[in-house]
Amino acid sequence: MENIADFKEIADGIKEKGGEAFKYCYQCGLCDTVCPWNRVRTFSMRKLIRQAAFGLTEIETEEIWRCTTCGRCPQKCPRGVGIIEVGIASRRLATEFGVFPAPVRPVRGVSSSLSVEGNPLNGERNNRANWAEGLSVKTFTEGMEILYFPCCYLSYDPRLQRVARATANILNNAGVDFGILGAMENCCGESIRKTGEEELFKRLARENIKSFIGHGVKKILVSSPHCYHAFKNEYAEFKVNFEVVHISQFLFELIREGRLALKKELVKKITYHDPCYLGRHNGIYDEPREALKKIPGVQLSEMPDSRVDSLCCGGGGGRIWMETPKGERFSDLRLDQAVGIGAEMLVTSCPYCITNFEDSRMNRENSDSLKVSDITEVFQEVI
Ligand code: SF4
Ligand code: SF4
């Protein structure tokens, strides 16, 4: 009897934490047929949902931490089950009990870095704007056209700082009146929320909102689809509504309005990877492609899994901070697809995708035969 009470407690705990949607599941298994994990190993979201319904969730194993929240299976579910929500609710329970299997343990360090410095990379808060040194980048003041929010990875990671600098160069070239908040901003909190750290997400979000309102921010330009998703969809829970634009949309707009002139050609075979949080979660598929097509000389081809079927890079849902062994990395498969269609450049628009693709590229033979670029790095070459 005691055990039954325990099971009920777990099922109730998951329900309480937002995972109630499991009750609609009728175990058809369609979710498993599209999940990218099943291309690299066995994994069953269907089973996790079943376990949640019966209070049998095993919070001590890695299984509940696998979902990258890529959004592929919810689109296929015939019962409209909030599959991602069930997974996050299980993680909230595990986080509450402080249970983290070995590959997930790095998340604890990430949480403390976020609490202390406002970023997941252990960077000092005061160094947040260092990427902009030597460029004409001002501090945001009320009345400017747009706030540029570069994201933690673009602020601190040396590979991705190149993307922040490319963005600033493009904005300056197009005469955009923009500013940054540097040390006065935090991580958007989107990914730590998906690991079950709800309170930390709320704290980061509230502080950002206070800073945005305090500085008179109306329109925010972001480089990361995760910041886009947080500001546009998740911060709305705090009853605020900022205009949010992703750089791929803004680039297209700048070209269309004649503010950004493309002066050079780029004779290359390019393919574009849709980041999950830009494509599936927010429906932005066309602008990056349309912008790239405007570059003289570019030959744009599609990979086998593109647009709504895009293959996740493996970095969402906090997986960017967890350990994924060689042989189980979705990004390796994505690079095979890019090489398979003869692409010379794999272009994307998300810091997690770039990080994972660069790791995969370095581990390939002939690593220099494929270039991994953010969309802004491509445009920087042609203006
Ligand atoms: S696709 Fe939906 S209904 Fe089918 S097993 Fe998965 S969650 Fe359940
Ligand atoms: S959201 Fe993506 S990673 Fe998560 S279970 Fe569904 S298909 Fe798999």
Can you walk me through this structure?
This protein folds into 3 domains: 2-103, Fumarate Reductase Iron-sulfur Protein, Chain B, domain 2, CATH 1.10.1060; 106-252, 3-Layer(aba) Sandwich (Rossmann fold), CATH 3.40.50; 262-380, Rossmann fold (3-Layer(aba) Sandwich). It has a 5-stranded parallel beta sheet. A 4-stranded parallel beta sheet has the order 7-6-8-9, sandwiched between helices. The chain is an alpha/beta fold and 383 residues long. It is built from 16 helices and 9 strands. Helix content is 43%, strand content 9%. The N and C termini lie far apart (71 Å). The relative contact order is 0.12. Helix 3 (45-53) packs across helix 5 (83-97), helix 12 packs across helix 13 and helix 14 (330-340) crosses helix 15 (351-362). Mean pLDDT is 94; it is low at 1-5. The structure holds iron/sulfur cluster (2 copies).
Fold topology:
Layout lengths: L1 H18 L10 H5 L10 H9 L18 H5 L6 H15 L8 H12 L20 E2 L6 E4 L2 H5 L1 H16 L4 E3 L9 H5 L3 H17 L4 E4 L2 H10 L8 E4 H10 L11 E5 L13 H8 L4 E4 L28 H11 L4 E4 L2 H12 L8 E4 H6 L3
Parallel strand pairs: 1-3, 2-3, 2-4, 4-5, 6-7, 6-8, 8-9
The structure holds iron/sulfur cluster (2 copies).
The site of one iron/sulfur cluster (SF4) has 15 residues, from helix 2, helix 4 and helix 5.
